[in-house]
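Listing S7. Sequence submitted for prediction.
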Amino acid sequence: MRELLRTNDLVLISAVEALLKAARIPHYVADGHMSALEGSIGLLPRRLMVEEDYLRRARDLLAEAGLGHVLAD
């Protein structure tokens, strides 16, 4: 799996997950349970991961939705 984006913004993650789900692009939010270790203060970013085969499609989808600026390099 490859990193699509990394953020502490839970609203952004939810919005991107909704876009990916609607486009039927499999994804996974990594580090989501790290908040239990950090005390739920949102210090550690979560990573939204997609399979290599879907990476280009996912990146294009986010760019078309005006979210190209949040994509991981």
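Caption to Listing S7: primary sequence and predicted structure tokens for the chain studied. The chain has a mean pLDDT of 89. Strands lie at 2-7, 27-30, 46-50.
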